[in-house]
Amino acid sequence: MVQILDLSAATQADLGSVAAIAKSAGVDFDDCYQCGKCSAGCPMAHEMDFLPRQVIRLLQLGQYQEALGAHTPWVCANCMVCSARCPQGVDIAAIMLSLRRAAKRAGLRPEKETDIFDDIFVGNIRRFGKSNEAVLAGMFNLKSGHLMQDVLNAPKMAVRGMIGPKLHSVHDKDAVRQLVDKCLAAEKAKGQAAQSGGEVSPS
Amino acid sequence: MKYAYFPGCSANSTGISFTLSADYVGGRIGLELEEIPDWCCCGTSAALVTSADLSLALPARSLALAEQHLPGLDVATPCAGCFASLKGAQHYVRRGTEQRAHVEQLIEMPYAATAEVYSFLEVMAQPEVSEQIASQLTTGLNGLKVASYYGCALVRPADVTQFEDPENPQSMDRLMELAGAEAISWAYKTECCGASHQISEPKGARLLVERIFADAAANGAEAIACACPLCLLNLDLREAEINATRQARGEQPFDIPIYYFTELLGAAMGGSAKQLGIDRHFWPAEALVQRAVSPSPAEPVLDDAGLKPDSADAPAAAPTAAPMAAPMATPEQPAEPAAEAPAAAPAEAAATPATAVAKEVADE
Question: Cβ contact (<8 Å) for A81 and B152?
């Protein structure tokens, strides 16, 4: 697929945001010489709009908005094969995480289902301190609208003692909730700082 | 041999068979586990994609509690995902005083990261523990062809998990060989199962599981061994669905049960399917393990020479081997793999003198 990018459209703010992604992921985008090994080994590549290599290329060219809106970081399963195999030691998986968090802070979620799933997961931890898998799956179906997904497996799981009516939770629920809230508030503050230009790196 | 035990959220639910089988094996070899008081969810990938701090704070809280209440004990966890999260927090805190202060401020508890964190696989692969396991074996697995599947979380990132070879790990293979299985060589032992994408992105993620089955089948695996509850669930729960899709495409289905490595160790020690949780799988797993632990009466058992009575199983194995070999069939030669399979199975096993000779002749 040939895509025309207007390279002159990269603003100072975009370049600053790209630098912030590099800092947060602990990488230097110039280390990547586009060999494509990351993308060759990526098990989810078939679902991506940009290959991992192409996401890095976008960032190298200052195309921050393109990279931020890419589905790739949300399709990434975080298996880290890319990072393990990069001949230049670029932590591609960390770039995907940084981009995804930045996109979420900016209110973007190109892959709705992945976002819903992870939000419910974290909400589960906030509420119970532990993950209750039946609650997770049930709430995912409700919130994503995939009401019947895996429903036929539920009775089988119940018979096998894999799910049950009993929810497990920590004793010190307040401690875990406060911890989750503290981290989520910090993420939110980062997002607000980015919107007011605070995420722009001085370099 | 005592550890601070981090069960993980799946231990009493989807990973129940891991708990049952690890308890069984642990009981037989004198493994002592003391549960970390009030441990919480490790956050796994959901915390990681949400907030870097959260992905550190959740596992660090449990590790700090272990340090406080179970001082001097290293931490052991069955789940590979929990292992990766716990190791991530420990590794971060060990990087320096600044990092340690950051985490302690997040969890509002002291955490010095003095204790080591081990997966159950690492615990059981230690030489002295493996010796214990060997001493408890009764029936053995009689040459069952097992593909050891490690997945992602144990091996990557290598500098954090400090596991063995990230591309070709061997510890589970060695345990399977120890239990009398034949650890097959295959290419997908550290490929991703899709993790939570099997729920959130099922359409794109099913292919990952199918590829794992296909490579195991192509290399002659009768069973896949796992060390992660999510890997096992993703393979075991989806095998029937993937087979239905394959049949609709005119392709051969798989017939490969998935086991926790502890289930296979426990079976080789004489544990029953019920004791080990093997009766709770989605893809039927009892018959194969039953066959593996029962030496066939049809052929003399060559135990004295340390040889496995594989060839005795060959007629029974053939129907299973045929559909498993089929994914490699070229479309224009559909009959060939089925015809090949009975001959190929004993030759590959090369376990009895007769087949060894046959192989030599064939090689010449």
Answer: yes
Contact present, B205 and A117 (Cβ < 8 Å)? no
**Do B138 and B268 touch, CB atoms closer than 8 A?**
yes
Rounded to a whole number of angstroms, the distance from the CA of B135 to the nearest CA of chain A is 31
pTM: 0.86
What is the helix (H) or strand (E) element at residue B352, kind and residue range?
none
Does B359 lie at the interface with A, CB-CB under 8 angstroms? no
Unique residue bearing structure tokens 């990547």: A32
Do B68 and B141 belong together in one domain?
no
Residue located via tokens 């995912």: A140
Fold of the A12-108 domain: Fumarate Reductase Iron-sulfur Protein; Chain B, domain 2 (1.10.1060)
Strand order in the sheet with B32-35: B32-35, B2-5, B75-77, B117-119
Whether the CB-CB separation of B144 and B177 falls below 8 Å is answered with no
Using a CB-CB cut-off of 8 Å, the residues of chain A touching B53 are 182-183, 186-187
Q: Compute the distance between CA of residue B84 and CA of residue B77 in angstroms, rounded to an integer.
A: 10
Interface test with A, best of B12, B18, B36, B41 (most A CBs within 10 A): B41
Residue B158 sits at the chain A interface (C-beta within 8 Å): yes
Q: How far apart are CA B350 and CA B360, in angstroms?
A: 10
Q: What is the DSSP letter of B70?
A: S
**Token representation of residue A51:** 């290959």
Which CATH number covers residue B26? 1.20.1050.140
Instruction: From A105, A109, A41, A102, select the one nearest A75 (Cα to Cα).
Output: A109
> What ipTM goes with this model?
0.93
Q: How far apart are CA B154 and CA B227, in angstroms?
A: 9
Domain boundary among B72, B95, B121: B121
Chain A residues close to B199, C-beta within 8 Å = 117, 137, 140, 149-150
Show the domain range for B236: 137-363
B183 bridge partner residues: B146
pLDDT digits (tens, 9 = 90+) for B117-174: 999 999 999 999 999 999 999 999 999 999 999 999 999 999 999 999 999 999 999 9
Phi-psi region of B299 (alpha: psi -120 to 50; beta: other; left: phi over 0): beta
Nearest neighbour of A122 by CB, restricted to B50, B190, B195: B50
